[in-house]
Every structure is written in C-alpha cells, then in structure tokens.
Amino acid sequence: MTKISNNRPLFLITNDDGIKAGGIKALVEMVRPIGDVVVVAPNQSYSGMSHAITVSVPLYVKEVVNEDGLLVYKVNGTPADCIKLAVRTLLDRKPDYILSGINHGSNSSASVHYSGTLGGAREGALNGIPSIGFSLLNYSYEADFSKAMPFARHVLSYVIKNGLPEGTFLNVNFPDGDSLKGIKVCRQAKGKWVEEFIERKDPRQRRYFWLTGHFKNLEPQATDTDEYALENRYVSVVPCSIDITDNDLLVHLQKMKHEFQMQ
Amino acid sequence: MTKISNNRPLFLITNDDGIKAGGIKALVEMVRPIGDVVVVAPNQSYSGMSHAITVSVPLYVKEVVNEDGLLVYKVNGTPADCIKLAVRTLLDRKPDYILSGINHGSNSSASVHYSGTLGGAREGALNGIPSIGFSLLNYSYEADFSKAMPFARHVLSYVIKNGLPEGTFLNVNFPDGDSLKGIKVCRQAKGKWVEEFIERKDPRQRRYFWLTGHFKNLEPQATDTDEYALENRYVSVVPCSIDITDNDLLVHLQKMKHEFQMQ
Asked: Cα B115–A244–A102 angle (5° rounding)?
C-alpha cells in the first residue's frame, strides 16, 4: 500500500460485472486525474447479487495492478464483500469516496434491490463514506460509456463539493446513446420485474427453470420518477437511504397500540 | 397442485436457512390450521444472500412433500428466487400471504440489508402480497421457537385482519428465551457490522480471508428502535418500504437545481 499517498482524495471503486468490465475502467479513468484510486472488484460477474455477503467460503484477494496512485485487486466475492475487505483490511486509511459501476444495464426503480452494484454503494454508505452507484442502460459488454462521463463527472463534483448526508447514497442511471438532455433528481419509480421462467429439460431429463423477464413501470404517468427521466433521455439521480423504515406505516401502527401491541 | 384448495387462505413460506431448518417448520405449524400452505425454500443455507437472484445457473425444483393442504418444494436458489418461482410458475393462484423465516439469528437494524430472509419478504412485497420476515435472536440450529410463536401469531393476525399497505413488509425479530414482554413497533436502528476478517493461509500457502464480526448499535440511547426493543426483551416489528428514496435529500437536491442539474 506504499504507493497510495495521504494527500490526495482516495477513491475506492467496485462493480458487479467483474474486474474486466468496461464500466469499471470508465470510472477509473474518470477519477485518476483527481485522486488516488483503489479498485477492489469481483473476479467474475456477480450480477443480481444484491447486497449479498459471502459467509460460507473464504475470500481470496489477488493484486493485479500496482502503480503509483492505482492499486487493483480482484476478489472471489460480491461487491459488498469487496467494500468490506477494502475498508477493513486492504486499505490503510478510510476512502473518501466509493464509486460502484458503471453497471452494464439499468438499475432504476425496483432493480435497486437486485443490483450488486447498488449493494456495493449501500455498503459504502453503511460505512459512513459518500457513495455513488452508476449504471448505463446498455447490457452489452461492448457498451460505450463516453457519452455518460460528463454527467458522471458532474454528479461526482457535486458530491465532492457538498458531501452526502450520513446514511444516504446515490443511484445514478444513464440513458444509452447520444444527446442526453441533462440530469434529473427523482424518486424511485414503482415498478417490478415481470418474470417468466424458461422451462427446459437437461441432458438427464431433469426439469429446470431459468429466470428471465422484463421490467414494468407501474406508474407510467408519473413525471417525477427515475423511469420517466430515463425514458425522456435524462440522467436519473435517486437519493437512497439505508434506513428502510416505512414511517407512514410506523406512525399508523403505533397509533393502533391497543390492537397491535401486546405490552 | 391439485391438493391446494381455492377456499382457504394460501400461505407461501420461504427462508434462507434451508428447507430443513427448525424455523421454517415453526411457521408451517403456525399456519397449517388456518390455511393451505406451500413451502418453496432453498435446499441449503442461503444466509447472507440479501435480495440476490440467480441469473447464471438454472434452477431445479424438487417436490418433497405433497399432502392435503401442504406442498413443499426445495430449490437450488435464494429466497427471492423461491418466491419468484412460486408466484410465477409453481402456484396456480396468487398467495394471500408470504412468510419468510423464522430466521436462525437476528435481522434487526442494518442486518435487514444482508438478510436472505428479508430478501424473500421484500420480494413478496414487490409482488403486491402482504409479507412478513421473522427472525429469532438465536443462531443455533437447535434454537427453540416455542416462546416466539404466540407473538408471531399475533402479528400475523393483525396482518390478516388489516392487510398491509402496498409496497411495505414487516421485519419481525424475537428476543431469545423466556419472558418476552410484548411487541414494540419501532424504526430500524442505525447500526452496522464491525467486521474483522480472519486471515489465514490455505494448504497451498495462498492467503485467504474469512468474514466475521459483531454488530454495533450506533444509537444506543434511542428508545424507539428495534435494537432497543430487543435489548429490553420486546418483540420488534419494523415496517419496511420497498421504496428506498431518501425524501429529505430528494427535496434538498431538487432545490439546488442551479448547482446540481444540467438541464
């Protein structure tokens, strides 16, 4: 860890598409001019792994790059594992910012719950570090991140200047392609994945299922959601909380003390 | 699916400790007298799997019990996979309630993010089905769930009578042992896992890390949190939202339009 200085901002980067994905390279290139960079990322795709942590097998860490101001490690674990390992073990000091992504594919609306990329960002927020998850609406391994980068820089600049409140992180999604119109700060749309399971038989004639499906926006009329922003070619920024308490229902249930509580 | 009737409530049950765990048996015994029951649960422990879904390997489903009013399937997938498979493929009709657990070990405070049990409950809520995650503060495979059951029944009775608002689910934790004092509806405590990684060398002299740690309540003075309730031997009920938008930060960022947005 001798090549990481103490006088520049330290960026910790992870993703869920694996260390070789183009999206993570785009983030490294974005921040290398302004700080020191440590990448701790999965050795393969951990897509759909949410905020999972690895408890039943040991984690192996392999250093793959060691240059002035840039260290890269790969881990046989999830994005949340990578952040934990970095913060607790690999780094000599607390990172100033955590960036996760850029995910190859959307993480808007309900996808925030399934996303390993956002699991990495949430883990950063749980550690009290300003954290941002980035995703591009293009699942291709060959996706072009160049059009998204000016907007990613802008969001990051805001966070560097203003910080983020404790317990929050940002979920940033970029429409794919040219002519992005700007950035919209929005709320998480109500939506869900409408799954279908492909049903087949394996060579031993055992029936198996394979998850597939498409996303459905459950409030297509709303204009203040991330889905609306993305459909209209704006970059969506959803501020997210690590506290998932539903305060409306909390107040309601507490009022119904006589019925609900057994004290 | 012919043995599941259409005229009794249908309970769908999953967990993350696997189909053989005592906690899932406790839930089945609780609801069998009042409805039909379908269990779709992992074939092994999927602890710490959060809301992960399986996208890179196929899922196999094996029927292990087929009695009047009780069907049990095991799946090589996560709790969220189990709920998706049940709702989309295995069941002829939408379940009336989804119960997840009873987890062997606490899922209070920040643990809600790592918990496969709560991933199953959240997946239920994403499907518009009233869903409850239950956890007992005892990690043992031999944990005794009997003292928790009157309180589990009480929470379930409330939900059967009143329903739950769309997009919410309940995170219910039981202290271990006797003399529980009652139920408290509370908010998610600010807390985090203070991890340490055990560092060892494997037989081939490769360094590996194994995740361990302990939970830390970051607001020990607060009396309205799940941690406070549990420490004082109350059952904690935290109403949780699938919408994780941080509304305070949303309003703040929207006010800073000139600085943050690029339209």
From this structure: 75
The domain B10-260 is placed in CATH, from the list 1.10.10.10, 3.40.1210.10, 3.40.50.740, 2.40.50.40, at: 3.40.1210.10
Instruction: Enumerate the β-bridge partners of residue A134.
Output: A172
CATH fold of A10-190+219-260 reads Stationary-phase Survival Protein Sure Homolog; Chain: A, (3.40.1210)
Spell out the domain ranges in chain A.
10-190+219-260
CA of A90 vs chain B CAs: smallest distance (Å):
10
DSSP letter string over B66-79? EETTEEEEEESS-H
- DSSP H or E run through B124: helix B116-126
Q: Do B85 and A197 touch (CB under 8 A)?
A: yes
Q: What is the pLDDT of residue B1?
A: 46
Distances B248 to A26, A98, A165, B254 between C-alpha atoms, Å: 31, 22, 10, 10
The answer to whether ipTM exceeds 0.85 is yes
Helix (H, G, I), strand (E, B) or coil at A114: coil
Task: Sort strands B182-185 and B207-217 into parallel, antiparallel or unpaired.
Answer: unpaired
Partner residue opposite A59 with nearest CB, options B58, B209, B259 = B209
* Interface list for B 198-237 with A (CB within 8 A): 199-200, 202, 206-211, 234-235, 237
Cα atoms in the 13 Å half-sphere on the side-chain side of A114? 24
Measured CA to CA, the distance from residue B103 to residue B176 in angstroms comes to 12
Q: Which residue has the tokens 């379930």?
A: B156
Name the residue among A88, A112, A196 with its Cβ closest to that of B195: A88
3-state secondary structure of B214: strand
- The C-alpha atoms of residue A142 and residue A165 are separated, in whole angstroms, by 35
Average pLDDT, chain A: 94
Question: Which amino acid does the sequence have at A6?
Answer: N
Residue A2 has pLDDT above 60, yes or no: no
pTM of the model: 0.95
- Yes or no: say if A35 and A68 are a contact pair by the CB < 8 Å rule: no
| Burial degree of A133 (CB within 10 A; 0-12, 13-18, 19+) | buried
Cβ separation of A238 and B247 shorter than 8 Å? no
Enumerate the residues of chain B whose CB falls inside 8 A of the CB of residue A245: 187-188, 238-241
Chain A contact for B62 (CB, 8 A cutoff): no
Neighbour tally for B19: CB within 10 Å: 22
- pLDDT below 50 — which residues of chain B? 1-2
Contacts of A199 in chain B (CB under 8 A): 89
DSSP conformation class of A88: I
Spatial distance between the Cα atoms of A159 and A171, rounded to a whole number of angstroms? 13
CA distance A232 to chain B (A): 12
A169-191 confidence digits (pLDDT tens): 999 999 999 999 999 999 999 99
> Taken in order B12, B16, B21, B27, is the CA torsion positive or negative?
negative
